[in-house]
Amino acid sequence: MVENHKYAVVDIETTGHSSSNGDRIIQIAIVFINDYKIANTYTSFINPEKSIPFFIQDLTKIKDEDVVDAPLFEEVGSHILDMLQDHIFVAHNVHFDLPFLQNELKRVGLPKLICKKMDTVEFTKLMFPNLYSYKLQDISSELHIELQSAHRADDDALATAHLLLKCIEQLSHLPLRTIELLHKRSFHLKSNLSLLFFEVLSNKRKVYETKNYPTYHSIPLKYVQEEIYSQPIQLSYPKKKTSKLSLFNKSMPRFEERLGQFELMDTIHDAMIEKKEIVCEAETGIGKTLGYLLPATIYAMKQQKPVIVSTYTTHLIDQLILEEIPKLNKLLGVQIRVGKLKGMHHYIDLYRFWQHLQLDDESYDETFTIMQILVWLTLTEEGDLTELNVSGGGQLFIDKIRRTDRFNMEELEVEDFYHRAIRKSEKCDILVTNHAMILADQERENRLLANGCATIIDEAHQFIHASMSRKERVFSYTNWKYVLGQFGTLDTEHLLYKLSVLHIPLALRLRLETQFVEVVNIFDDTISVIIHSAKQTKTRYKNTKKSILLGELDLDDSILRRVANTIQTFILSAKSIIHSYSNHFNEIHSSIILNEWEYWIQELEIKASEWDEIFLQEETLEAKWLEIDTRSIPGSLTIIKRPLNYQQDIKNALNPLREEGAVIWTSGTLSVPTNRHFITSQLGLDNNVSINTFKASADYYKGAELLIVDDMPDIQNVSQSDYIESIAEAIVQTVLVTEGRCFVLFTSQDMLRKTVDLIQETELLDDYMLFAQGMSSGSRMRLLKSFQRFSKSVLFGTNSFWEGVDVPGDALSVIIMVRLPFSSPEDPLFKKRAELLTINGQNPFTAYSLPEAVLRFRQGFGRLIRSSSDKGVFIVLDRRIETKSYGNDFIQAIPNIPVKKVSLENMVLELENWYTKGV
């Protein structure tokens, strides 16, 4: 029996991050673990012999008076050193705690602690690869570990000890083969987790009982019980209001009837029966999702075919399945059969992953990501790669193992995740997918969505963006260099070098290398020409970031064609050479190298196609523009091509669905007061398709008011820096009164960044957690979740934060709109659209710019009140809402709430009164 190690789980609180710059420990806690049980604890305040900075006091709740009578580190250092001997040193981010402690020991003349170390951040990322955050506070919440006071050494150390034990428990429950594969790679980790992997592996081998894990080439996967599809239950739609009330009251004891929800249900039910196409604009507060799911489910069960429900993002798909379907199950008293279809690239290619397991890893990130996937495969039922939380470097490996059209079913020993999802989608009541899948289905030989009896398009206005994104082409300099970098040269350990393993003659390898070097040289020369031309082109605003329509650049077509031609020559040569020798590749290692070559040649073909479409093809109804940041050349160079005519694409995708049954378009914002068909016309819908509007009850918004700050400067009459100073002051004043819980919405990332930088320089909001899109790390949803976890927090975002975000209750109490959300006149996409509207005899401002901004304004306001008990203030800092004739269009677009025009000083007083009363 392998002897179990002893662990000392340590956490320290300090006056700052650098012991070498004079920062000191103010509290230390140690939790000792023997035989996988907590055996003892030690904790002590430490007198740092200096004042504790205010932000540290606020973070840790440790005051100067708490440590004034505490021992000096000199007095306890020897005892701490003795206690830690013969233990593995464990910490949450051990690379901070251990070096800091070592420096303190050295400072007081004590010997260095000789020990092995383990990092619970690294361990948790491996054992729980699908957590959204690896901060101790977030992990504790997700894994139900008690953490009473975060950033206190005693509580943090105890929580970390319980986390270590949970990770060990998770590891010991993994299949033996998984642990073996993990142990094999664990020697490349940054902390000594290999000791623990070996310890658990040795114990597991002695007591291992075969479990029912299917394996794919010796990779254990989660066992999924096959669903038994019984005959659908026949349900009758409750047509009468009394029947609906009875149904809801039976399963929801505190159910409150919402104005418009029952009417929405009836409208959708009737459309399905009559197989009509309709538009339903349902305000927040209607209960839209349940309003369409109930009639859809009953209709699907009657037809014994699925109703297709499409949303914009995969996040909304998961939200619908995890939150809304369980409500409906309870309401109807049945188990609704739900299928979920996402694009192929969301799924893992098991065979390709297995191949990579046979190779030596290229980096720590790759090793770590492979280990995360090995654990995740024993947890996931769907194989959806979005479940994984991997590092930026890990994403590069994820891209290598995504499912693609190139797929050999004969290689599989278990069912492929993607095909499992397709099979499940064929026998369900509700089939949830996204807009991109519906649009892509028009090009599939065997349509995946051909079996539906009706279609509901939720977040319908986003269907336009989905179509634009589908047809969009993007040239990224960094992506191109990354793909080209995979080939290398004959004297580097990249693809060209690996050809020697395949025994391809040197002469052919040299020829291929010469052709590839020519590709790189011509590509680099062409990029230099493009950048030079961009620098010569003047733009209206003197920002570091430039956006320029491609037509404004002076580019010679011949040099652009040379890039395409040399790449094509290299691709054809590589394919010919590899094909000629492919019959000699019998060994697994040779086969893997061949697959690598095929994969990267395919990637290069995709890049070549992008180049051709962006630079060498011209269409009237499209916009092409270059984006570059002068601080990062050429790395920031991006060129985008986006279509301006997407109605036909949408029609082609929807026409087959129209033949199968009703089509219901629904969203909270599908019209503006001055242009009812603004969105539906862009969707390509005929004006005779009825637009049904469902409004929330008047008292739903009783907790909201709109404040217009009327003494803000006019941005057109002051410098940007002066305007940003005024914005920053208004934001700071608002946050201090409301104690955070605030969204700040910008139309420009540049202005957002400069405002946040200024606020941070003033240190006036140092007590608050500031999260800024494009500045704080993490995705939009991660930023939102972080924002919700802190009561004193502020979230700064641009347009992409304005919709699809729910923050119910007290987590959000104020929205500040810095500027009315017009597109910038310098935005290349807007410039091209305005040019086409002008040619067609339309006014770009009234036909597009104004209704688009009003729609965004509605969406921004829609984030504030998400339930009838929510209370909040919507603050507009842009004076144009009161000084311009079109300002009233914005006010008319939101519900009828109190509107007050106030100075900045009076706004603060108004907020104080509102906040004090809780109104």
Characteristic terms for this protein:
single chain; 919 residues; alpha/beta; Nucleotidyltransferase, domain 5; seven-stranded parallel sheet; 34 helices; globular; 3'-5' exonuclease DinG; hydrolase activity; hydrolase; EC 3.1.-.-; exonuclease
Commentary on this structure:
- With 919 residues, the chain is of the alpha/beta class.
- It folds into four domains: 7-210, Ribonuclease H-like superfamily/Ribonuclease H (Nucleotidyltransferase, domain 5), CATH 3.30.420.10; 348-415, no CATH class; 473-643, no CATH class; 700-917, Rossmann fold (3-Layer(aba) Sandwich).
- 46% of the residues lie in helices and 14% in strands.
- A hairpin with a 2-residue loop joins strand 2 (25-34) and strand 3.
- It is globular, with a radius of gyration of 30 Å.
- It starts with 6 loop residues before the first strand and ends with a helix.
Blueprint (SSEs and pairs):
Elements: E1 7-14, E2 25-34, E3 37-45, H1 54-60, H2 64-67, H3 73-84, E4 88-91, H4 94-107, E5 117-119, H5 120-127, H6 136-142, H7 153-172, H8 176-185, H9 193-207, E6 215-216, E7 219-220, H10 241-251, H11 261-274, E8 277-282, H12 288-303, E9 307-311, H13 314-332, E10 338-340, H14 350-357, H15 364-376, H16 392-400, H17 417-425, E11 430-434, H18 435-441, E12 454-457, H19 462-471, E13 473-476, H20 477-485, H21 495-498, H22 506-536, E14 545-549, H23 557-581, H24 588-616, E15 622-629, E16 638-643, H25 647-660, E17 662-667, H26 678-682, E18 691-694, E19 704-709, H27 720-738, E20 742-745, H28 749-762, E21 769-772, H29 780-789, E22 793-797, E23 814-817, H30 828-839, H31 844-861, E24 872-876, H32 880-883, H33 887-892, E25 899-902, H34 904-917
Parallel strand pairs: 1-4, 4-5, 8-17, 8-18, 9-11, 9-12, 10-11, 12-17, 19-24, 19-25, 20-22, 20-23, 21-22, 23-24
Antiparallel strand pairs: 1-2, 2-3, 6-7, 13-16, 14-15, 15-16
